[in-house]
């Protein structure tokens, strides 16, 4: 039985790897194009259908034409989506951090102590409960 390496030389392995990675890149590119295409609100459904048919029927020409004509818009829309997601996350964090928790309760208790509405012992009790 001959060794396995002699049946599948290095250049064949290299070629198979290039084909595999090229296929992965192609699929990634298709997913990005379809994601951008169907995430757009500035074109009609017929335009989306036309682009989809073009990319499916003539894949290389359709993809290259879409990237050539819509590439700058794709980057801008991706940046806008990223910025919107970041601002939404920041808003959530601000709401979660500022809406309650022990820090806010202790701050309210300190305000009551400073205004004279509660005593130092009551303030310490509220602080202990907030930290528990």
How is the secondary structure organized here?
Layout: H1 4-7, H2 10-39, H3 45-57, H4 59-98, H5 101-115, H6 120-131
Task: Describe what this molecule looks like in 3D.
- 86% of the residues lie in helices and 0% in strands.
- Helix 2 (10-39) packs antiparallel against helix 3, helix 2 (10-39) crosses helix 4 (59-98) and helix 5 (101-115) runs antiparallel to helix 6.
- It contains six helices and no strands.
- By secondary structure, the chain is mainly α.
What key attributes describe this structure?
single chain, mainly alpha, 132 residues
What's the average pLDDT? Answer: 88
Tell how many strands the DSSP assignment holds. 0
Oligomer classification: single chain
Major sheet details: none
Shape: elongated
**What helical percentage do the residues reach?**
over 70%
Contiguous low-pLDDT stretches (5 residues minimum) are: none
Content of β-strand? under 5%
Task: Look at the helices and sheets and give the structural class.
Answer: mainly alpha
Number of helices: 6
Amino-to-carboxy terminus distance: 72 Å
N-to-C series of helices and strands: HHHHHH
Gyration radius, to the nearest Å? 30 Å
